[in-house]
Amino acid sequence: MNKTRYGKAALSGITLLLATGMVLSGCGGNGDKNASSGGSDNGGGAGGKKSKVTVWYLWGGKEGQVIEDVIKRFNDSQDKITVEGLSVPDEQKIKVAIAGGKGPDLTDSFASNVAQYAKEGIALPLEDLIARDKYDMSDFVPATLEQGKYDGKLFALPLNINMNGMFYNKKLLADAGYTEPPKTSKELIEMATKLTKTSGNGEIEVLGFPSYPGFPFQALTYGFGGTYVSQDGKKATFDQPGALEALQAIYDYNKQFGVNNIKQVQATGKWLDPTDPFMSGKQAFRFDGPWLSTFMANNNIKLDYGLAPLPYLDGHADLAGSNEAQSSIFYIAKNSKNVDGAWEFMKFMYSAPELAKVMGGMGNIPARTTSMKDPVFGTIADADKFMEFAQNANVKALPNIAQLPDLLNKVVKEEGEAVFNLKKTPEEGIAAMQKRAQELLDK
Amino acid sequence: MRRKANLTGLLFSAPFILGLLVFTLYPTGASLVYSFSDFNLFKPLAWVGLDNYKWIFQEKEVSKSILNTLYMVLLATPVSLIAGLLTAQLLNLKVKGQSIFRTFFYIPSIVPVIASSLVWMWVLNPKSGLINSLLDLAGLRGPNWLLDAAWTKPSLILMTAWGSGGVMIIFLAALQDVPRSLYESADIDGAGSVRKFFSITLPSISPIILFQLVMSLIVYFQYFAQAFMLASLTNSGADQTMAGPEKSLLFYAILLYREAFVDFRMGHASAMAWVLFIITALVTWLVFRSSKRWVTYGGD
Questions:
Q1: The CATH number of A165-324+403-442 is which of 3.40.50.720, 3.40.190.10, 3.30.1330.30, 3.40.50.2300?
Q2: Would the CB atoms of B43 and A120 count as touching at under 8 Å?
Q3: pLDDT over threshold 70, residue B183
Q4: Which residues of A touch B41 (CB under 8 A)?
Q5: Residue A124 phi/psi, 5° resolution?
Q6: Mean pLDDT in residue range A429-439
């Protein structure tokens, strides 16, 4: 009796230990697999067995479906690689999964993260693959390719060119006697003030200034022809007229109409939602991207609006069309177990016709010039206008430097917030940004 | 035979022991090692000595987060205890529908934090939200709760008071354990209800107050979920800084999380975790020490 009991206990104990051992070795085993991956799979075609590539993307819903569609077309187009897509709308989760060796082979992000991912060893440099396949990149808009680079090396390919345009409510402008949108900073400020309507207790009924959905400092600065950092990423450039004028305009408007009243508008409506003040006719000027046009078109929102380039700094007609370009990108995880498969899919998705389909499906402007000519963009709301904005010579981009997240999330956010809340003057704000940014860049 | 019995015992407790080793002791030890190194999950770790601890004492965001956290510890702890105790006291009254009231007051505690935070974001909407609409009826203009640095933490405390059902239910149990006979003799002596509350109820439930105090302190030192929701879900999309207006929602645990999982500075995060552990342990120890003066155990 006792003996059997002991035997059973021992048996279950051994099973348990074995199971634990398996869990533990599973946890630690990734390193080996990674080490042997680098191309040994090579499409897996030789044995007739398909190799697998996992692609995680941040989009969901309709946009996620666009990615699933391109995956399906790729899987149908060849019989060596099977791509499996998954919508993971949480970037942290993706990073942590990659860190744990359980992440995707290929995933997307924003260009502003490329430097950090490259530096931290999350993203794989693409140079070798490009050289091996003599991959032609001359069709990509050069400014967007820069967005995939860190330290001179390409780590990611740009999908699109995102930038803001100035949306304006035609009816509100007409009611105030305007027939044209503002072209310069001065006109914008004057019109924004005139178009603002308040109720007796100061609450804002119509927001004239583009301070929704958030603090418009970056869009205004780049629109006014200013920049945050020099193109080589070495010098802070807040101490130039564009940034100061932008901050001054925000400060003056807030002072006149009350910070609390403006915050109330910011807190009340939800971005890209029927409660959005622009869509409900309660915002005169709005700086936003092509997704706003797409959203209004898809959701049948009837609003008589116009779209114009961002106003330029008064007295500097040479700066007309100034803007900031941003891109979404795809990168291969450094510890991908199927680098070649991921690269094959990437090449397919980035081919001119496919990129046109993917970006067209999302209502974005593709990063390839040939894709831009695809007829699909004739059917997308405002695509023609955004393409025109994108091709202006005054469009700039923030350089990919590892300090970028700290620069944007700490320096600009903290100092900008202090000016927005009228706790610092624009001059003090700019001086502080310049000083702190330079310290950060010198690190 | 004896050894066999020991072995059997060990084998049966093996699941727990292994769990403790693998999921508790190993990570704890690892975090101690990380706290002395530069480690981002992707690159091999490099020893940096006390740099991470020095960073804690120099970084402005850390001091800001400590002040924010102390605000919650010092205000939310008493609010949740008092709200919990008062509700328990009311729900202890023999009235019609007592169990229905008890259920209603406890319901907020079983709503998941994420869901209740989302609901509160609606309630606190400055224009169409419930609270400001009521204030509007009274002719008052309510604040921009979640966008005004002065009102973000009071918003959280309001949510705390609403969700104090967990505290309440324990107090309710404690109140029912206070011997009837004490109240009866107080009645004979002519004591009023206030006098009875302070002289009988409070001393009788003081061990429970101690327990709740310690638990609350720990909860607020680690305050995270509600603030994380409010700070990262803004009207204009996700905010990666998770700090709220003028960093008024940057609590210690949020900064720790951000350092670890947004910026991948595991060294900073681990060092912060150890400092928090030491602070919490110290405060708990002080509370226990002071408890000799104000906690009365029945039978002593």
A1: 3.40.190.10
A2: yes
A3: yes
A4: 96, 99-100
A5: -90, 135
A6: 97
Residue of chain A whose Cα is closest to the Cα of B142: A264
Asked if B17 is an interface residue toward chain A (Cβ–Cβ < 8 A), one would say no
- For testing the chain A interface, which of B11, B21, B254 should be mutated: the one with the most A CBs within 10 Å? B11
Q: What is the pLDDT of residues B193-246, one digit of tens each?
A: 999 999 999 999 999 999 999 999 999 999 999 999 988 887 776 777 889 999
Model pLDDT for residues B134-165, shown as the tens digit of each residue: 999 998 989 999 999 999 999 999 998 998 88
- Do B262 and A266 lie within an 8 Å CB cutoff? no
The answer to whether residue A386 scores a pLDDT higher than 80 is: yes
pLDDT confidence of residue A47: 52
Nearest to A9 among B11, B40, B149 (CB): B11
Cα(A184)–Cα(A320) distance, rounded to whole angstroms?
8
Kindly tell me if the per-residue pLDDT of B80 is higher than 90.
yes
Name the more confident of A58 and A28: A58
**B8:A16 CB<8 A:** no
- Residue range A176-226, pLDDT digits in tens: 999 999 999 999 999 999 999 999 888 999 999 999 998 899 999 999 999
- Which chain A residues are Cβ-neighbours of B18 within 8 angstroms? 16, 20
Residues 6+ apart with CB under 8 A from A265: A204, A207, A211, A212, A277, A282, A283
Return phi, psi of residue A48, to 5°.
80, 0
**Which residues, numbered 136 to 175 in chain B, qualify as contacts with chain A under a Cβ-Cβ cut-off of 8 Å?**
141, 143-149
Using the Cβ of B7 and the Cβ atoms of chain A, whether some distance falls under 8 Å is answered with yes
Which helix (H) or strand (E) element contains residue A308?
A: strand A305-308
Q: State residue A18's pLDDT score.
A: 44
Q: Which chain B residue has the Cα nearest residue A98?
A: B42
CB-defined contacts A:B, below 8 A? 95
Domain ranges of chain B: 35-294
**A421 CA to chain B: closest CA distance, Å?**
9
Residue in chain A lying closest to B39 (CA): A120
Closest among A293, A305, A314 to A244, alpha carbons compared: A314
Q: Where in chain A is the domain with CATH 3.40.190.10?
A: 41-162+326-396, 165-324+403-442
Q: What is the ipTM of this complex?
A: 0.83
Which of B:251-290 have CB within 8 Å of A?
261-264
Nearest-by-Cβ selection for A99 from B18, B42, B127:
B42
Tell me the per-residue pLDDT of A87-130, one tens digit each, with 9 for 90 and over.
998 888 898 899 888 999 999 999 989 998 998 889 999 999 99
Give residues with Cβ within 8 angstroms of B182, minimum separation 6: B200, B204
- Is residue B71 within a helix (H) or strand (E), and if so which, with residue range? helix B60-91
Q: Provide the 3-class DSSP secondary structure of residue A325.
A: coil
In this prediction, residues A50-76 reach a mean pLDDT of 95
Average pLDDT over residues A373-377: 93
Q: Which helix (H) or strand (E) is B11 found in, with range?
A: helix B2-19
- Fold adopted by B35-294: MetI-like fold (1.10.3720)
Residues of A in contact with B4 (CB under 8 A): 2, 6
Contact at CB, A264 and B42, closer than 8 angstroms: no
Structure confidence at residue A48 (pLDDT)? 64
The CATH class given to the A41-162+326-396 domain equals alpha beta
Q: Which DSSP string do the residues of A271-288 spell out, in sequence order? A: TTSTT-TTTTT-BSEEEE
∠ Cα A132 A137 A142 (to 5°): 140
pTM of the model: 0.84
The nearest CA of chain B is from the CA of A122 a distance in Å of: 7
Amino acid at B242: M
**Whether A267 and B125 lie within 8 Å, measured CB to CB:** yes
